[in-house]
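Researcher: Quick one. two chains, 353 residues in total.
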Amino acid sequence: MIFLELFWAFFQIGFLAFGGGYGALSLIQDQIVNVNKWLELPEFLDLISISQMTPGPIAINSATFIGYRIAGLGGSIISTIGVVLPSVFWIFLILKLLKILSRWIDTAQVFNALRVSIVSLILAATFRIGIESINNLFTVVIGLIAFYVLYRYKPSVIWIVLGTGVAGIFWRLIAG
Amino acid sequence: MSLFKLFMIFVKVSSFTIGGGYAMVPVIKEFIVDKYKLLGEDEFMDVIVTAQTVPGVIAVNTAMILGTKLAGLWGAVLAVLGSILPPFLIILVIASFFADFADLPVFEGFFMGARVGVTVILANLSLQLIKKNVRKYLILAIIAAGTAAIVLLNFSSIWILLISSVCVYFIDRGRKR
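Model:
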């Protein structure tokens, strides 16, 4: 029963994926290419690169895409539900755990520390996307302009994403 | 907070999250903290941190906690629906109509540029957070070391979160408050 198999594969991915999309990718590859042999590696990599290029979390995008490729609309719905559902369990658990812990330890102190160290994770994501995307004169200039505009005029960050995207279209059409 | 408004916030956030989980943080912060002032910055960052400490799709984890905090069970349901609906529909359209979507020059160009934008808003958020939370060079060094370990040495982010939090915790405890 393909729906059940899809659900189970993506449920495991959602249940085990630590640290977001990049961590999930190897799990997804393992389930889709190695364990279930639903796709060959090149086709899988194509789907993943589209999942990274479109808006939304990579795990959701690839669940929808792969589910659709393998079993149509039903497959895409089942796979997406499968990857989302484990969050219900994990979040319920962590919120309960925090409540219990707060009786014995000062969780505010712990969160102060966590709030500082998460900057490393956000900086790391900044570098990773930056290294991949800022790699020629055009992207450097656009990046500097966007940063100046954001810093000086504080527009919605949505405008920054849209504006740089449109600039990219013009560059691509002019420079080829 | 009306449920519909909450739903729409997450629709907007997931529509503009290009390039993975963290790109969501500055967008969602803008709505929840800056625009609608539903949570303070520290409280918001606590939600982001909590969402990282367990497995799962980070955007979904975040939506679930924020939804619960702001509007209970139905808040959680609608926040999660809002954050998965746009990507789900976009992918369905692409999967059924454009087989070689990624090769279209317009799309390729937009993606190339937008990721520069995502880098910029993430860099801006990082600077804001450092300015707000870091008072000592030692702590700045720990953040730099953690970042390098993830980017250069491919350490898992959950370990960096744990190790550097323990360091920061004891450094801050040593300080008389």
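Chain B has a mean pLDDT of 90.
Researcher: Thanks, that's what I needed.
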